[in-house]
Structure formats: C-alpha cells, structure tokens
Amino acid sequence: MTYPELYILRHGQTEWNAEDRMQGWLNSPLTPKGEMDAARQGEILRDLDLTGFEFWSSPSGRAVQTAGIACGPLAEAVHTDTRLREIGVGDWAGRLRAELPQGTGDDPYMAQYEMAPNGEGLAAVEARCLSFLSEMKRPTVLITHGITSRVIRSIVVGKDALANPSIHGGQGCVYHLKGGTQKMLT
C-alpha cells in the first residue's frame, strides 16, 4: 500500500526515559533535555514546507507536550488518536528495565516488550498502526513514541527502516518517509 508523506517525531526524553523505566501507557513529564529535543524537532520542521499537512499526536502527556513545543507555532491544530500511543507494557508499567527479565534473540530490547505480562504485544501495535495509516488521506506530521514509531516506519518503508535501530527511537530528530524511503533529519 502507498501512504502519504510523513514526518514522524518521537516525544522528547522523559523523567522515566532517563531512569530507564518502562512507561507504556503511563506518563512522565519531559526533562529539560526532552524539552530541548522537542525544540530541536520544531527547528527542523520550521525549515520544511508543511502546507497541506495534518498534525496528529498520541494523547499521552509526553507526546502532547512535545507536540506543543515542536508543532505549536506551525500547526493550526494538533489532533490526537489513541492508536498512536505507545505499546502497552501491562504489569511492567513503571518498572525499571534492570528489574525485569531480559529479552533474548536478535533484538533483546524488543523481545522484552513481548514478554511483558498483560502487555499489548507488537502484533496489536501493528494492527492499530495499520488502522490509523489506512485512514490517512493527506501528508501528516505524527508525534508518537519509540516503539510506535518503529512499527509505523516498518509498515511504511519496510524492515530496512530499522536497519540501524536505536532504543531512543529518534528523540530530537525527525523521520521523513516518502515514496517508500526514510530519511532521518537532524
């Protein structure tokens, strides 16, 4: 399937990111670094022609806070959609990663999300991201989360979008997806 042009932002660093704590559907505020991450994303976006673009954000506080900093001066409105929220980590929400069983395989970091008791799982995240993307009609700026960004980029561009994965998933940068390719703007 072909999708409209996308710019994808991950929320800025949060207090829990800095502590290496699982957030999932819970929230913690941006750190001063996170506010700088969002400001940097805003600088990147200001240099682009976003005429005709829609702006959509996860409803999580950290994403909305990032959207306000990065997109507030640019967007007439930023809409929210729960399908853009982060992967649910069930019983592990709020826990330090170091306290949890470690994942195995090619990507132990991602495997840990599949292990979370009562967690959402990657297949469910992919289903809701596909649902959101199938309704897109216009070029869009998305403000979302690390895992959700990875899933969306993998759907739109393919597995090559994750060739150089970062557990930080793009804090402070913007991913540009167009014509089946991805470029990271910094």
Short description:
35% of the residues lie in helices and 14% in strands.
Kindly describe this structure.
It is built from six helices and six strands, in the order E-H-H-E-H-E-H-H-E-H-E-E. The chain has 186 residues and is α/β, with parallel strands linked by helices. It has one domain (6-19, 30-88, 120-185): Rossmann fold (3-Layer(aba) Sandwich). The chain has a six-stranded mixed beta sheet, sandwiched between helices. Helix 2 crosses helix 3 (61-71) and helix 5 (122-135) packs across helix 6. It is globular, with a radius of gyration of 15 Å. The model has no long low-confidence stretch (mean pLDDT 94). Keywords: Isomerase. Its EC number is 5.4.2.11. It is an enzyme of class 5 (isomerase). GO terms for molecular function: phosphatase activity; phosphoglycerate mutase activity.
Q: Based on CA inertia axes, which overall geometry fits?
A: globular
Q: How big a fraction of the residues is strand?
A: 5-15%
Beginning-to-end CA distance, first to last residue: 28 Å
Query: Given this structure, which CATH class is correct?
Result: Alpha Beta
CATH topology: Rossmann fold
Q: Considering the protein shown, what is the CATH homologous superfamily?
A: Phosphoglycerate mutase-like
InterPro entries: His_Pase_superF_clade-1 (IPR013078), His_PPase_superfam (IPR029033), PG/BPGM_mutase_AS (IPR001345), PGM_Phosphatase (IPR050275)
Keywords: Isomerase
Protein name: 2,3-bisphosphoglycerate-dependent phosphoglycerate mutase
GO cellular component, one term: cytoplasm
